[in-house]
Specification:
EC number (chain B): 6.3.5.7
Order of helices and strands of chain B: HHEHEHEHEHEEHHEHEHHHHEHHEEH
Helix content of chain B: 25-40%
Largest sheet of chain B: 11 strands, mixed
Largest interface: A-B, 51 and 67 residues
Number of helices of chain B: 16
Oligomer: heterotrimer
Family (chain B): Belongs to the amidase family. GatA subfamily.
Helix content of chain C: 25-40%
Number of domains of chain B: 2
Number of domains of chain C: 3
Keywords (chain B): ATP-binding, Ligase, Nucleotide-binding, Protein biosynthesis, Transferase
Number of helices of chain C: 15
Organism (chain B): Candidatus Sediminicultor quintus
Radius of gyration of chain C: 29 Å
Chains: A alpha+beta, B alpha/beta, C alpha+beta
Structural class of chain B: alpha/beta
Distance between the termini of chain B: 34 Å
CATH class of the largest domain in chain B: Alpha Beta
Structural class of chain C: alpha+beta
CATH topology of the largest domain in chain B: Amidase signature (AS) enzymes
Catalytic activity (chain B): L-glutamyl-tRNA(Gln) + L-glutamine + ATP + H2O = L-glutaminyl-tRNA(Gln) + L-glutamate + ADP + phosphate + H(+)
Strand order of the largest sheet of chain C: 3-7-8-11-1-12-13-14-15
Strand order of the largest sheet of chain B: 1-3-2-4-6-5-10-11-9-7-8
Shape of chain C: elongated
């Protein structure tokens, strides 16, 4: 493979979107791995799909709909149970903006 | 023979006949876990006390002459990607370590109602991403047939636990082969049901349009037994289909004379191990003997399955795994400067490298400017792959293929090269893309005594047919069924 | 160059279902303890799955049909991906390239030139609401935010208009009418202050001769009709000033700061999100049965426009009155209830549009919570008609009614401020007035009608307005004749 499909700069952009951070070495590694994977994926371009409908769902059936009925919510202690970062019934996060 | 070596249907019958108690089975199960799991490492958590308690309750019912549910006293191991109320559910990831869901997956409720006993949670590739169970944050699982080898993945813990008689049956999940490939590599029976057959409620999503839960068992009958219990419509899952659940056990009893079998030629070309090919050819002869009509078939878009799968699965995964952000549950980085760095550090420290690689790939495939070239393209090719199957199934009742191109490979053999690892799923992936059912069962062993699996594929909601074909083959296979002899010592030093 | 103002609106309305959009938690979240109105589904816990509420679909179709939209027989849900602490799945389930309703319109009437304008509705689509972030103490000094997920999964319909507004006032008129429509449909309470109706706007300027749009700014956080008008006017002025100074307008998102009455920069386009929309795999395409749409269309309730026409016809009130009385569902209901008990419909509309609305506005009370019910208002008006109180007295009584919630008759009884009905008592006053104003009596006798009015006024003055003017008028005439 000679031509890069995804550049290191794009890897950095994608990492930002995915909220992941990598050191320089990892960035290089990811760039090279993603390039070889994407290069292999270029295979799909052999196919003319101009007039093919995309498939997002493999089944088709009437929509399942909920009745508009209220059922009990979870108690607060169960909701907060899995976090160490709780204050007065809220989840605590670093300040936004 | 110890009771943990029984199949589930044998155990249920013996309990019903009061020949053995559920408690006795459970004791043998935990004895076996104590004996071998330090070598196999199939389990992440064990519910010993609760399981023994539930076994006693079953025995009480037997004593009182109460009617027993279909899986009364059957030990079930659950892949750790299925939510269990009050029991840690980690998906093999550091990011979910310590997470205890306040709800059960629908299949857990169904198993419990059927009298099954959940004995523990099994190891897996992190978020089901992998084919060897080496991608678990909690260390790999070892193949009971050869401890230097992988059990397959991602449901490697479940398959190894069943193979090592540490449980009677197990549940796995299958997004691109994660039930069938480890079942094959461990010599067990594994079924990936039709998409929509079993509720996904409580199955932690990897790729939502491909994921299905299914059983891993010691024989086809057990598979049918568990399928009957866990199948069916659920009003908590919009993609679960409202169709009656057939009596899978009953349908196994019929023969397969005149069954039209297609053997797709595209599955026998590059990379297939000669021993696998030979075992499959031998198996096809048996099908022929049983009256099935075998013909070569063609699935022309097979070679495009792998890129199609990885684009769709990783795109969905990038969104499904975005919720692990350290806010509400699971891991949060210790040190960070602000919100953005909390997110980045949490996710970078919490996810393993394969998960990060797939999130990156999927995010890229969906990102502005690339959607059409990658994600949309893959969805269109998915249509072509699906149409391939529609076409062959207008001619054939089932398809027979190998499950995996090779028997179990060695630990660390493929870890450093993601593409080679991806290739171990080439026979299973197209089935998920089409949303159809397939079962993998053992058809023989390699010279080095490693199990080889064959895959039977059916059309949508034809689980009855593939179970029947599998059962007929299993009953008439000329290769004698073996159990692994778990030999310790050997794999020492292999550990990372 | 003559600059033309171009405004488009994006309005979110909270649909008044009992349960949330994809789960069975209640939509009644306001005032609840934090994180007590949630479940695995709306918390986005691993393994949970969404199932659409039937009523949400029905309400959204009702809204789209009332806005003359075409209903897509197959629409789809998409995931909108972004990280934010109030979004527990890190994606919002929304609709993207195939919304439920599209290509609709709504007509508004502009009072200044009696012109009718058709505002095109681009789309009506469904999406789920996010949670809320709370800050303790001073936002600047606090190092953390607090997250409450109670609002997560509340059903919203988003209504997007084409950039068809040419002034902030047009946008305001549209919003008032839209609110009345969704209230009449029974799909949303339209409360902007509480956030059950929210509005964002895109504002740009262009050369009136050109058809290409200028660079737009998106304005957020406008929490009342007044705020919408003020914020949009501020933004128009800001952009005009920039253009006048030759500064290029940049695409950005701006936040309306109500306390300072300015819009402030939130983020520029460079920081705009890449939302990576893709079809939500957990929800199958939404198929809408045409029969269902027709059924909904047939059973649409009376909308404000039809109601206004009916008010004009049935109650013989001016168009202006009818327009105001139908500008909110509750106001229209109040008027109709009162009109069913009282036949002087114009007197009624005067009192409602005058005194009642003034008190409600001054005290920031919604008409639904008015201490004066239609029955009580009518009770008071009847006291006037019966001559027990005068119109002037009634205003004082009305104020007391508003403050205490008591019936007019009770207030009258307690304070004794009835009209003087005792004729002897009145004649005594009249006699005093005649005696004290011989000049006026004389003038009247000589045919100067005006003098009589002065004398009536004097009697009213003596009785502190408690006399019935008509009676006093006649009585004075007779008395003076007798002299």
């Amino acid at each position: 493979m000679t031509e890069k499909i995804i550049t290191k700069k794009e890897v950095e952009y994608v990492a930002k979107l995915a909220k992941l951070e990598f050191n320089e070495e990892e960035k290089e590694e990811f760039t090279s791995q993603l390039n070889s994977i994407l290069d292999y994926f270029k295979k799909l371009n052999e196919l003319d799909t101009e007039r093919v409908e995309p498939t997002a769902y493999v089944i088709s059936m009437p929509n399942l709909l909920n009745e508009d009925k209220v059922k009990p919510s979870l108690p607060q202690d169960e909701v907060l149970f899995n976090s160490k970062y709780v204050k007065k019934g809220y989840f605590k996060v670093p300040k936004i903006m | 023979m110890t009771l943990n070596q029984l199949t589930a249907h044998e155990a249920v019958n013996l309990i019903k006949k009061k020949r053995i108690t559920a408690y006795e089975i459970m004791q043998d199960i935990f004895n076996q876990i104590d004996k071998v799991d330090n070598l196999i490492k199939a389990f992440l958590f064990i519910n010993r006390e609760e399981a023994l308690k539930q076994a006693k309750e079953i025995d009480k019912k037997v004593k009182n002459g109460e009617k027993l549910p279909p899986l009364a006293g059957v030990a079930v191991a659950i892949k750790d990607i299925i939510a269990t109320r009050g029991t840690e559910t980690t998906c093999g990831s550091k990011i979910l370590k310590g997470f205890i869901p306040p709800y059960n997956a629908m299949v857990i409720n169904k198993l419990r109602e059927a009298g099954a006993i959940i004995i523990g949670k099994t190891n897996m590739d992190e978020f089901a991403m992998g084919s060897s169970t080496e991608n678990s944050a909690f260390g790999p699982t070892y193949n009971p047939w050869d401890l230097e080898r992988v059990p397959g993945g991602s449901s490697g813990g479940s398959a190894a636990a069943v193979a090592a008689d540490e449980t009677l049956v197990a549940l796995g999940t299958d997004t691109g082969g994660s039930i069938r490939q480890p079942a094959s590599l461990c010599g067990m029976v594994g079924l990936k049901p039709t998409y929509g057959r079993i509720s996904r409620y409580g199955l932690v999503a990897y790729a939502s349009s491909l994921d299905q839960i299914g059983p891993i068992a010691k024989d086809v009958t057990d598979c049918a037994l568990v399928m009957k219990v866990i199948s069916g419509h659920d009003n908590m899952d919009s993609t679960s289909v409202n169709l009656e659940v057939p009596d899978y056990l009953k349908s196994c009893q019929e023969g397969i004379e005149e069954l039209k079998v297609g053997v797709p030629k595209e599955y026998f070309i590059e990379g297939i191990d000669p021993e696998v090919k030979a075992a499959l050819e031998k198996a096809l002869k048996i099908f022929e003997k049983l009256g099935a009509r075998i013909e070569e078939a063609s699935l022309p878009h097979t070679e495009y399955s792998l890129p199609t799968y990885y684009l769709i699965a990783t795109a969905e995964a990038s969104s499904n795994l975005a919720r692990y952000d350290g806010v509400q549950y699971g891991y949060r980085a210790e040190e960070y400067e602000d919100l953005s760095s909390m997110y980045q550090k949490t996710r970078s420290e919490g996810f393993g490298s394969e998960v990060k690689r797939r999130i990156m790939l999927g995010t890229y495939a969906l990102s502005s400017g690339y959607y059409d070239a990658y994600y949309l393209k893959a969805q269109k090719v998915r249509t072509l792959i699906k149409e391939d199957f529609d076409k062959v199934f207008s001619k054939y009742d089932i398809l027979i293929t190998p499950t995996s191109p090779t028997p179990a490979f060695k630990l660390n053999e493929k870890v450093s090269d993601p593409l080679t690892m991806y290739l171990s799923d080439i026979y299973t992936i197209p089935i998920n893309l089409a949303g159809i059912p397939a079962i993998s069962l053992n058809c023989g062993y390699s010279k080095s005594n490693l199990p080889i699996g064959l895959q039977i594929i059916g059309k949508h909601f034809s689980e009855e047919t593939i179970l029947r074909a599998a059962f007929n083959f299993e009953q008439n296979n000329e290769v004698e069924k073996k159990k692994p002899s778990i030999k310790p010592a050997k794999h020492k030093g292999v550990k990372k | 160059m003559r600059e033309e103002v171009v405004i488009g609106l994006e309005i979110h309305i909270q649909l008044m279902t009992k349960a949330k959009m994809f789960c069975h938690c209640s939509t009644d979240y306001i005032g609840k303890e934090p994180n007590t109105n949630t479940c695995p589904v709306c918390l986005g816990l691993p393994g949970s799955l969404p199932v659409l509420n039937k009523k949400v679909l029905e309400f959204a179709i009702r809204t789209a049909v009332a806005l003359n939209c075409e209903i897509n027989q197959v629409s789809r849900f998409h995931r909108k991906n972004y990280f934010y602490p109030d979004l527990p799945k890190a994606y919002q389930i929304s609709q993207y390239d195939s919304p439920l309703g599209a290509s609709g319109y709504m007509e508004i009437s502009l009072p200044e030139n009696k012109e009718k304008r058709r505002i095109r509705i681009t789309r009506v689509h469904l999406e789920e609401d996010a949670g809320k972030l709370i800050h303790e103490g001073d936002i600047a000094s606090s190092s953390y935010s607090l997250v409450d997920y109670n609002r997560c999964g509340i059903p919203l319909a988003e209504i997007v208009t084409e950039p068809d507004f040419r002034s902030p006032e047009e946008a305001r008129i549209f919003l008032v009418k839209l609110r009345s429509i969704v209230q009449h449909l029974g799909v949303c309470d339209g409360n902007m202050e509480e956030g059950s109706m929210r509005c964002d706007a895109n504002v740009s300027l262009r050369d009136a001769k050109s058809s290409t749009l200028g660079t737009k700014a998106e304005i957020k956080n406008m929490n009342s009709f007044k705020a919408v008008k003020k914020a949009l006017q501020f933004e128009v002025d800001r952009q005009k000033k920039l253009l006048a100074e030759g500064i290029e307008i940049i695409q950005e998102t701006r936040h309306w700061d109500e306390s300072k009455s300015v819009t402030i920069l939130m983020r520029s386009k460079e920081e705009a999100h890449d939302y990576r929309y893709f079809p939500e795999p957990d929800l199958l395409p939404l198929k809408v049965d045409l029969k269902m749409v027709e059924e909904i269309r047939r059973s649409l309730p009376e909308l404000p426009e039809a109601r206004r026409e009916r008010f004009i016809k049935n109650y013989q009130i001016p168009e202006y009155d009818a327009e105001i009385l139908t500008s909110s569902k509750a106001l229209g209901d109040f008027y109709e209830k009162a009109a069913s008990l009282y036949s002087h419909s114009k007197v009624l509309s005067n009192w409602i549009m005058g005194e009642l609305m003034r008190y409600l506005n001054e005290n920031k009370v919604e008409i639904e919570d008015s201490p004066i019910s239609p029955e009580k208002l009518v009770g008071m008006l009847k006291l006037i008609d019966e001559g027990i109180v005068s119109g002037k007295m009634a205003k004082g009584i009305f104020e007391k009614m508003f403050k205490t919630g008591k019936d007019a008759s009770k207030i009258v009884k307690e304070s004794g401020i009835t009209q003087i009905t005792d004729k002897n008592e009145l004649f005594a006053v009249i006699d005093i007035v005649i005696k004290e104003n011989p000049r006026s009596v004389e003038d009247f006798s000589e045919g100067k009608e005006k003098a009589l009015h002065y004398l009536v006024g004097q009697v009213m003055h003596y009785t502190k307005g408690r006399a019935k003017p008509g009676f006093v008028f006649e009585a004075l005439k007779q008395r003076i004749k007798k002299i």
